[in-house]
Specification:
The structure is a single chain. By secondary structure, the chain is an alpha/beta fold. The chain has helices spanning 2-42, 47-63, 88-97, 104-108, 137-156, 182-186, 188-200, 228-234, 248-260, 293-303, 314-358, 381-395, 407-410, 436-448, 466-475, 502-507, 520-533, 581-593, 607-611, 615-620, 661-667, 672-682; strands at residues 79-82, 176-181, 205-211, 238-242, 266-271, 379-380, 399-403, 429-431, 452-458, 480-484, 513-515, 537-540, 545-546, 562-565, 573-577, 599-603, 627-631, 649-650. The protein has three domains: 2-330, Thiamin diphosphate (ThDP)-binding fold, Pyr/PP domains (Rossmann fold), CATH 3.40.50.970; 366-546, Thiamin diphosphate (ThDP)-binding fold, Pyr/PP domains (Rossmann fold, 3-Layer(aba) Sandwich); 559-682, Rossmann fold. Helices cover 43% and strands 12% of the residues. The strands form four sheets. It has a six-stranded parallel β-sheet, sandwiched between helices. It has a five-stranded parallel β-sheet with strand order 1-2-3-5-4, with helices on both faces. Strands 14-16-15-17-18 form a five-stranded mixed β-sheet, covered by helices on one side. Helix 17 links the parallel strand 11 (513-515) and strand 12 (537-540). Helix 14 packs parallel to helix 15 (466-475) and helix 18 (581-593) crosses helix 22 (672-682). The radius of gyration is 29 Å and the shape is elongated. The protein starts with a helix and ends with a helix.
Amino acid sequence: MYLLKSLFFAIIIYSKGIRWRKVDNRSLAVLKGLALDIIQNAKGGHPGSTLSAAPILYTLYTKHMKVNSSMYDWINRDRFVLSAGHASALLYATLFLSGYQFTVEDLKNYRRLNSKTPSHPEFGTIGVDASTGMLGEGFATAVGMALGERVLEERFNKKPKNVFDKKTRKIIDYHTYVLASDGDLMEGISYEAASFAGNLKLGKLIVLYDANKSSMDTNTNKNFTESISSRFMSQGWQVEIVKNGKSISEINKAIVKAKKNTINPSLIIVNTTIGDGSKLEGTPKIHSGELTKEDYEQLKRGLGVEGLPFTLLKEPAENIRNQVIQRGSTLYDEWEKIVVEYQKDMISDKYNELQNLAYNNTEIDLTKIDFGINYDLKETLRESNSKVMNVIADSMWNFIGGAADVASATLTYLNGKEDIAYNNFNGRNILYGVRENASGAISNGLALSGFRPFASTFMAFSDYMKPSIRMTSLMNLPVTYIFTHDSITVGADGPTHQPIEQLASLRATPNLYVYRPADMVEIIGAWNCILKERKPAVISLAKTEVKVQGGTNMLSVSKGAYIEADPSDIINIVIIATGAEVQVANSIKERLKTEGIGVRVISMPCMEKFLEQTDSYKDSLFPSDAKIFVLEYEGSFGWEKFVTSTDYLLTVNEFGKSASKEEILKYYKLDLDSMVERIKSLI
């Protein structure tokens, strides 16, 4: 009898399994068909990875993703980053079928002007947790998100005050998932970020690798032959391999196993075929572009979803929607119960802190803080900046960051705050190691998690971070980049360390404020703007020692430029200066004063802010009959708009020399004596 009962239940379970596999396969076919419709309607959109990765995204969203489409910004939701951003049509189709607020018209507008469905995922679109585009950036950003989750978890998940209640209130408990491609893992940033994640044991980070063995120009057997599993295991990752990338059950088992490991980040290598089902499957030709009409129709027939585009089969579509919505709704309701318990146990201030974080409401007014400024003290701008940063750190718990192994030189270490480590996420100092590229993207991930992060290195090496800075600006994230040793005055380290073109490149980046403050007063003003405005920013600091200048004003930093010093009578020339060169401009002013030449010194700590001001304000700084000079110990690009002749640019437009600061300035005729004589010859 026992055997008969066992057999009976086994048959029921088996038959249910068959039925659900059929439902899943039918639903997957609908997802693929819809994604193909989106691509074909747009006349392009990377069908190759869309087809190969569809089983991965279907399995992830229907079986695992903790999301609530009606509460899409839920702080405890799982995060998903499409690092393989070219597969965006697949993501939009998945989100649509999962109940997110997309319409069929939105899908038809894929890749069109101002649509909700741009060619690559963009932060701000419902259901999209991060902008991606440049391969590897999404991968590294997700590492920052996973780090953010661990820090939040450590801060907010608390045991109740009742000693008899042992249950920790897990108000923060989510995973970060990534869909990565061969291209992502070829990029150096993914190596840096993976190493960092493994070192910190970010076990709630799960990367699903669509190993379709093809890139745009060739199959990877010609350009990418290393052992990915060995590489990631050597970096401290758990590696799972899915042999059949079409199998929903295999993918599901791998995700389940990855979720059980909360110590090591997980890489799931899903062996797939690019353009699965197409006449061009397995070849680079299916990577991008538009399918032929014949191939498109054949694919839809093979999937069993032939017919008019965007015509969905009701039952499979509802299956996807119901799986995601029902699970998400249940999990959200359970979380709300935890919130009620949390508020009772923790007193409301902790929960309020979390809410403020979720809505980015944290700020302080630095102008109301007494920094005890010593006007007689001569110190480097790095030292002044360090003092301000440490005041901020004492006032804002979510102010967090680090440097690319040069914090001792950039002076960006937060004193009295612990280092983040795999066994301590109470810290505020991130030890990035020599990983400039990854540190920028990780900072983006932290900002997307509610933090006010900073990242630092020497200005000459900011080029490593430029792709991440671009993504910061695209997403309008409150990340602050602190670059020191920012001119030829670096000296003996030579041209490799002396930035020339970097400032101009950063100033050319849309939506990015670049601050080059003159002294501690302007540093306070710059940070006050940064904290209040919550926008991407760079602080650029020279190595030079300076005193607080007599005319600098922290409130005027918000104008971008202002009159720092004036002659007592007539104005013959105006010198626009930035950073430590404001001090030099004041020295020029005093020298020319003895010869009866009146000099107005304009401090311009932020060119972008100045260009935003009214014409009347801008005109008020520059008398019509005065000659205008620009003084900055870097390249001149971008400054031409302020002068009538390049002769009036006191800048340097070639790579530096290895010598002392004094020798270098004399060589380029940027020492005080040479500049005074040059100015006199031009007026």
